[in-house]
Design goal:
With 407 residues, this protein is an alpha+beta fold. It is built from 19 helices and 20 strands. Strand 19 (380-384) and strand 20 form a beta hairpin. The two termini are 50 Å apart.
Length: 407
Amino acid sequence: MVHLSEILGLPVFDSENKRLGKLDDLKIDPLTGLVKHVLIRRNSSTLSVPWNQVETFSPETRKVGLREGVEMLPAGGCEGETLCLKRNVLDRQIIDTSGRKVVRVNDVLLELSNSDLYLRRVEVGLAGAVRRLVAGILAPRLVRHLAGGLSERGIPWDYVGLVEPQSAQIRLKVHQQLARLHPADVADIIEDLGRMERRELVSLLDTETAAQALSEVEPSVQATVVEDMQVEKAADLLEEMQPDEAADILGDLSEERSKALLGAMEKDDAEEVGELLNFDEDTAGGLMTTEFFRADPGWTVAQTLTALREADPDLLGEMDEIPLTDAGGRLVGIVPLVRLVRHGLDEPVTSAMRRDARAVFSSAPLEEVVERFEKYHLRGLAVIDEFGALIGLITIEDLLSRLAQRG
């Protein structure tokens, strides 16, 4: 095992022991971690040598030796399907998809396997920082002794996601890693990043994953992410979110930006979100979502259960009560799921209905909404207009989120 800090700056010699320059970087295949080329700094230029042309590689003897007849070519950039460890990884913010957080790379651990050199892990602990600080000043043996008494924390390369990936393959790798995480964990990562890095990260995610993660992010961060995105992409993201969540984000943006995003959204989505923007955020109307499952009071229990199974999962959420509405959209009653499953399949769904609907008007203040949830131990609360029509639902998650924002 050898650390990158131990080898950067090592003198490089040809087969006749003539000094050619110093080791400046290593170029790797980011998917396998295999070192492909050694980059050598010679005067004001950087040259590249394939790894298989390296004869000796020893931090202990403080030298790198090349094979006979090796040809050194201009290094070129570190773009495309390769990464340069010093340039692209060292000191960079990375995503630790195992620990679900953002960290900074202090050093890189490499391993010789047969004749190949592999990147095994990145070091993010204090030991890596100290090793970097004294590398080239103290002998490798003393550096290792000094670092050995400090906290050593490494992340296997397979669990590393780059905030600024250079290629389509790396972008795919990062996306696959992030897609395995819970949206709340992705949200924590987004919050830990700077503004530019957030934009890079969100661009890696598909619209559905990005929307789920953004719904878990702090409101101030939500606004900056959407503000920095291209209008069309931001509109797609908002369309994927619950209308109340999209309205909350637009409410935190400038009027000009909000109008531009609404104009880029699908007509039905824009109208739904636009209506919510008319409500004060600390009223029932400002808390409710307008996308939810509802049942017809003329259905049987069997018909209702079938409709539930076939409904869009996004409409169901964590609901444990079903609102019943007549042909005019007026709220008839509420059916708790626990009652529904206890009734016979051929019985009318109204037989399981709780007739005290416990609804509030859209103008009801936040304090009244909180009171209803506390008094009746609710997980959801219906919102009606002045004519008794059901226009939205407030979930316990929506309420807790708003209360947390108010501190």
